Amino acid sequence: MTEQTTAVEHGPQPGDRPADRRGRPRPLLIGAYAFPYGDATSNRLLQLARCAAGEGGPTLVVNDWPCELPFPPDGPRASGVELITLRRRGANHLSRMSARLARPIRVLRALRHRGVGRGDVSVVLLPMAMMTLGNWAVLRLGLRCPIVVDASERHDRRQFRRGWSDPYFVRHRWSTFLATRLVDRFTAVSTTLAGHFERRGGAVLVVPPQVDCDEFAPPRPPSLDAGLRLLYAGTPGRKDMLHVIVAGIGRLTPQDQRRVRLTIAGITRDDAANLSDLDPAVLDAVHAEVVFLGRVPRATVLDLLAESHFAMLVRPTGGYAANGFPSKVPESLAAGCPVLLNHTSDLADYVRDGAEGLVLDGNGPDDVRLAVQRALRLRDEQWTAMSQAARSRARRSFDHRAWSERVSTFVVPVEGRD
């Protein structure tokens, strides 16, 4: 097996920054994803890296491209950061395990190759999934700077078929356990999750999922007179209640159902039957048009948001939903697509009924039915006002530029700033 390092530069070149020790130390973010190609984790880390830099130049990102995923022919692109992509050849289980165990050493080697050493990094930003004893110890010893962990979720055992015995769930809870004992500063995606670390003595900054509002085109759905276009985008698994959405639409009158088109992007019809809570019998009885697109590129999701009247999301209360924050909500608002959802997590702080979206009274089928009926009664000018409110909310509350000062001030220690 061999390893390749790909450097992607945007803006200032590395010779203009701390690599030659003429500039101030800057943040370093470590990832192991298809960064920055649009999945929720990659997008969160990208926006977090952009915020962390503040006015001190681009954050340095070292991303270990997953062995099992194909590398795009044109390589990853990420504006606003200086990106080093590590590529480890080999796709069998043994090679993946050895790559994970050696990751912190490989990261330090890539940094030395770039000319980055002790004194050049002010803070290491580490996603919770990568909080291992090896990563923490090697990075702390090698760079001699603090580590800030980003917590974007807290899984519940009920999300997994095998419960407590699921390996992913065990690793997740082990990482959380280590973080609360080895790290004293966190960024967290919700106030509920922040409370978990605050109760254990950590300093926490709540940072909801962020977006780059400039990458979203203006909305362009057809007139409501031609029918209501609804969108669910994502992989529901056990966290999103897709069955409730479809069952609620199925409780409309047949005449109203024929005015509704529901597009489901992210899973196929077979996936919905096997990997979500959706009952195929309920789907078969629906008169509304329901279209499954399967997995689609991020660019397609953005187009679908621009062409839809509402993005839909129904989740249970408590547990995972209370600790997390659905990244599809900021993206929908940034696209000018109001949301039709129930309040979980911190959503009540950002989505007001009749303004940025329509809020369900609960998370049952009849709650969905009543909300869709309200949407069907809207006039185009009313929807346009909601769309404008959604875009305004996204710009104020979720655009990474609005968070830059707060995040950079929090993650970079006082002694690391001029």
Describe it:
This protein is α/β, with parallel strands linked by helices and 418 residues long. Helix content is 38%, strand content 18%. It contains 16 helices and 14 strands. Mean pLDDT is 90; it is low at 7-22.
Short description:
The protein has 418 residues and is α/β, with parallel strands linked by helices. The protein has 16 helices and 14 strands.
Write the layout of secondary structure elements.
Blueprint: E1 3-8, E2 26-31, H1 40-53, E3 59-65, E4 81-88, H2 93-101, H3 103-114, E5 121-127, H4 133-143, E6 147-151, H5 167-182, E7 185-188, H6 191-198, E8 203-206, E9 228-233, H7 242-250, H8 254-257, E10 260-265, H9 269-275, H10 280-285, E11 289-294, H11 298-307, E12 310-313, H12 319-323, H13 328-334, E13 339-341, E14 357-359, H14 365-376, H15 380-397, H16 400-411
Parallel strand pairs: 2-3, 2-5, 3-4, 5-6, 6-7, 7-8, 9-10, 9-12, 10-11, 12-13, 13-14
Antiparallel strand pairs: 1-4
Structural class: alpha/beta
Arrangement of strands in the largest sheet: 1-4-3-2-5-6-7-8
Contiguous uncertain segments of 5+ residues: 7-22
Give the terminus-to-terminus CA distance. Answer: 43 Å
Give the CA-based shape: globular
What is the mean pLDDT? 90
Number of strands: 14
Question: DSSP helix count?
Answer: 16
Q: What is the radius of gyration computed over CA atoms, rounded to a whole number of angstroms? A: 22 Å
Topology as a string of helices (H) and strands (E): EEHEEHHEHEHEHEEHHEHHEHEHHEEHHH
Strand share of the residues?
15-25%
Instruction: Report the biggest beta sheet as strand number plus sense, adding barrel if it closes.
Output: 8 strands, mixed
